[in-house]
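Reader question, answered in our methods column.
A reader sent in the components of a multi-part assembly and asked whether the whole thing could be modeled at once rather than chain by chain. We filled in our standard form and ran it. Here is what they sent:
COMPLEX SIZE: two components
ENTRIES:
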Amino acid sequence: MDKIFSTLVSCIRAEEPVAIATVIERSDVTQGQNPSPAELGATMLVSHIRGVQGSLGHEKLDAVVARDVGAALSSGRSVARHYGSAGESRLDDVTVFIDVFAPPPRMIIFGAVDFTAALVKVAKVLGYYVTVCDAREVFATKRRFPDADDVVVAWPHVYLETVADRLGALDAVCVLTHDHKFDIPAIAAALSTNVGYLGAMGSRKTHAERVERLIDAGVEPSRLNEIMAPIGLAIGARTPEETAVAICAEIIARRANADVRSLRDETGPIHLVAS
Amino acid sequence: MKDLIEDIERWRAGGQRVALARVVAVVGSGPRDPGAAMAINEASEVVGSVSGGCVEGAVVTEALGVIESGEPRLCTFGYSDDEAFAVGLTCGGTVRIFIEPLN
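And here is the structure of the entire assembly that came back:
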């Protein structure tokens, strides 16, 4: 671990995906016929950009673990796995902990409105790299969204094309403009990416109109239920800050497959009247 | 781990010996997922966490032993009838923590 620690730090600082695999448990060398040559604490770093550094003590084990690191990196989850001394999959001579360091997930917010500023703040608390994008340069300013990592003046669908191939299951696109002119191409473009969460703000009436226009724009009707609209969980949120919490809670719940109520799955008014 | 880097580098630059403790497995209910990390220096200063505060004290004790011996160790904390696991998690789960020297 000690030798590869500085490489790990460089990868994390450069926001490159990287994983370190460490031998955390091994069968007693006096037991069995095939004692593991792996030493407790032996560590290997795997980076698609910088390659492999270090070794767990056996070439074949290194190769199998390096392959499993790929799967762990795409899930974003650190995991302990068991192997035979030479990487055999059904044996348990060595336990290897694969610790994954993924770059922060991205949230792209379309629409530079009041709700956006609150959503940027909550998303930053959750560790997102946040981009605010709006075609109107009067609104899309760094001064209005000081917490955002990027503020981009561009048409949403044009910006989305530039980052489409980088969006994955842990990323989110939130469309807050509620102006069809911007929303329709943005939602259609987001549906063609692998983004894990797509939410759109607006009343049920606005969304019903939006659905018609999306179909007119060529979106497959079967894809429409991927859009979380009205956006957010049904927690009675009213202020921009409360709405931001409802949106982020919905993102967490969707990722975890949690059984909670989204506004999308309800009927009736979005804004509950306090009794 | 990401949040610990600056402190670890500062300690190491100051000549302090450091141990790194990482959650490597959680069985049942556990407060932190695998990958949660905590660093300890030889002066018993601590950054990060590996649980909701239930086992941190015991991890510091183990980590100081790791710094002294230079040998990594895998520790298990959790509910058990075995007295060896006297330090437990209030949530009833079991957590395995790997502690290694970073010298």
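What stands out: The two ends of chain B are 17 Å apart (CA to CA). The longest helix of chain B spans residues 56-69.
Send us your own complexes using the same form.
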